[in-house]
Amino acid sequence: MLTLRGGMGNGTSEDYWNSGDEGVRVTVVRTSDHAVLTTPIDFTNKSPDNIQAHFGKVSKISYTKGFSLKPNAQTYTYVNPAKAIPRIISSGSGNANIEAIKSYFTDELVIRYIAELTGFNYDTLINGDYKILLEPIAYMTFSGIKMAMTATEAALYDQQLGGGLRRKMASLSHKNLPLAMFLETADLGYPAWSGSTTTAASNANIISSLGLGIVRFSEAETPQVSSYDYTYRVNTEVITSVTVSGGQADPDNPVSVRFTIGGKTYTVNNIYYPDGDSQLVWVRWTTPSTPQTMTIAVSVSGGGGASQDTITANIVDLSGNDPPNPVADDRNDSYSKPGVPSKPQATSASWGVWRPWWQEYWVWHSTGEDSGYWCDHGWWEFAYDSYMASLSASMTIIPDAKVPTASGKTMKSGYGVNQTVTANVSTNQSWAVTGAQTAVTYFPEFQYQNYWRLLERTSSGYSAKFEFARNRYSTYNRRTHFTPIWIPDGSYTPYTYLMDCWTPRGMLSMNLTDSVNISGSLWDDWHSAIRF
Questions:
Q1: Which of 112, 217, 265, 519 has its CA 20 to 30 A from that of 441?
Q2: DSSP letter string over 372-396?
Q3: Which CATH class is domain 387-530?
Q4: At the top level of CATH, which class does the domain 230-316 belong to?
């Protein structure tokens, strides 16, 4: 489940942490799509009523999906469980015990207590469809302010401060706290940790891999492993990213990264980051027009060394799965209305770039009586410039203009519907972000499987528009989808997955739905037309 490590660090009267000032954030997560289902709850043995600053109740998964770190002015809330939690963060006064933590958070009474606090039925919680995400919390004093933060929040906060937290509290914020919990087996999209367990970690590694444990309720479950590092669509503008770390990269020792993709080489120069941290590096390119597997070679040079790696990209084509031609005597007597799917979505992302600046430190060098010279013995400091992107979208389904008896959004089955999807992207680093480029619509008559319509992008950019492609079965060559004549009365709800808005932190995507109301069938109109 998880592994614990750590050691105690030093502080000052303004920046310190007392052993035992700790807790655990508890969140219930759905296994299928990693959706956060409950507001996180913070367990602690302490009474941290003196917390002056915190970031609210936000889970690591929410931050991973793009939630921004924001100060919270509300009173910090916590729960003191009847059964005290074991030591979580190791220190000079004692080490945490992984077996004790495993035993505690798999104890039936504790799980029942978590179910009660989160409003979950206990039997539902343990049926294998859900997991419990655990995150260590530290109650620390930083710059004289009592603060509460998880490992992920500490790393995000350090980025905002340009490394200011790490400079004062590294042994806690970047070692004790994040290494208090990490995965031994990949799960919920987070990798097993194979890095150092004795040295301070980088912000990027903390955000991606550290400061979490997972309680599973189905040991038979096999973690999903993708054969590809990236999956892209054909003829799509994408972003491919890597993380560079090791030593310090500054203008005196810059790092360069070369991406070799499809016979072309893209070079990113002048990459900088402070010692002990890392930098996200990316390239923007367009995928080929045919499906294939591509190997992307990545080489890193400078900063005192060189390395090489490869990325595998699976290029797929979503066209060619249009629904078959509907006919008037179609039947489906066994049809049952399916639930609308919900694929993993991310509507915002944040990242940053380290910017070095020179801290002057002038020293007088004497060469004799009343003579000498000044020499700058300064050093490189770093500021962290933060960037973001967000995706918003809407979907509208209406009866086709050729439907003779439609009234508003009510229509008879067997006629066609039109669809429009609008997608808007906002960002403060436009060259690092693409607009949304792909929208795929699935339909309830096919149980949202097997057949779909790849929408045509009728306008591009950061304000994109998508519509049905012209239907080859339409007499009038309309942008339409024909509802089956046998579909029962009630709401008819197509589902659209909007995607391929690429950022350095990955792809933004959204689940979209809209409905028309079915009342009667086109046979009713036909019978009316021949009545005497």
A1: 519
A2: EEEEE--EEEEEEEEEEEEEEEEEE
A3: mainly beta
A4: mainly beta
